[in-house]
Amino acid sequence: MTDNPKAEQNTAERSANTVSLVIGASGGIGKALVYLLASADVREGEYPKKVIALSRSGYKDPTWPSNVTAISLPEHNEASIAVFVKDLQAQGTRVKLAIVATGVLHNESQGLRPEKRLEDISEEALATYFAVNSTMPALWMKYLVTVMVRENPSIVCISARVGSISDNKLGGWYGYRASKAALNMLVKTAAVEYTRRLKEPLLMCYHPGTVDTGLSAPFQKNVKAKKLFTPEFTANQLLTHLSKLSESRHLNDNESCHFIDWDGKVVTW
Asked: 260 near 266, Cβ under 8 Å?
């Protein structure tokens, strides 16, 4: 028995079942993130190589190593998120890094597409944008706070530059812009509370650029080839810049939340 309960707690936590969690693992960026986190070429000891890959279908890519656990969460709502996190608690699992890689921009089968003018706005479309892009990430932050490691946890949400209010010069895309702006505020606000409840947490909104996935497919024709990124590139950039921010997080207690792009540059809120 040690005379330092805190040191004992930290030692117990390091030896616990600690994982990286990717939410939305069946998407292009999600798949690449799972592979990078779980593979041997990731910098040793930075993030847990034991990865939980979460998606509606329970998708497991054949290229993922055996230390990936694919889990299906068919009903992506508050009740199912609560049950999933409760199961992690029951197993004694702690999350070091959680990445929310879900999002919606268009869905032709549902008639969902970015608005070009005010007349295109619909109540149903706005509800969908906010449900997927804002509400679900907020609910994940709500429940994950109970299972994150107590020291230096990280949460990343895939955002978008078009969610920047100060950077909006073109207009249009009302629902997507507004839902991503809401996401940014939710992450920023959660970071304040996470800082009160955990030691040196890091929350990040990440603009991946235009990535060659189904989400951006209808909007790629005017994108220069060198600005159309592979999922592997943007996933590697995300982890690289997250690592840099993690290394410096203890230098400034006020910097618990960041909004950056694929190049590591600050995006204005």
From this structure: yes
| Residues making up the chain, counted from first to last | 269
Asked if the model's pLDDT at residue 75 lies above 90, the reply is: no
Identity of residue 29: I
CA distance 247 to 234: 20
Q: Please say whether the beta carbons of 210 and 219 come within 8 A.
A: yes
For the segment 77-99, what is each residue's pLDDT rounded down to a tens digit?
999 999 999 999 999 999 999 99
CA angle 30, 36, 37 (to 5 degrees): 90
Cα dist from 247 to 4, 123, 181, 194, whole Å: 26, 43, 27, 18
Cβ neighbours around 74 below 10 Å, total: 10
- Alpha-carbon distance of 186 to 145, in angstroms, equals 14
Count, in order, helices (H) and strands (E) of the chain. Answer: 7, 9
- Containing 100, the helix (H) or strand (E) segment is strand 93-100
Sheet of 154-158: strand order equals 68-72, 51-55, 17-23, 93-100, 154-158, 202-207, 257-261
* CA–CA distance, 242 with 23 (Å, rounded to integer): 17
SS3 call for 11:
helix
Which residues partner with 124 through β-bridges?
A: none
Among all chains, which residue has been given the structure tokens 């994982």?
19
Residue with tokens 């699992």: 93
pTM score over 0.85: yes
Could you tell me the maximum CA-CA distance found in the chain, to the nearest angstrom?
A: 68
**Digit-coded pLDDT (tens) for 202-218:** 999 999 988 776 555 45
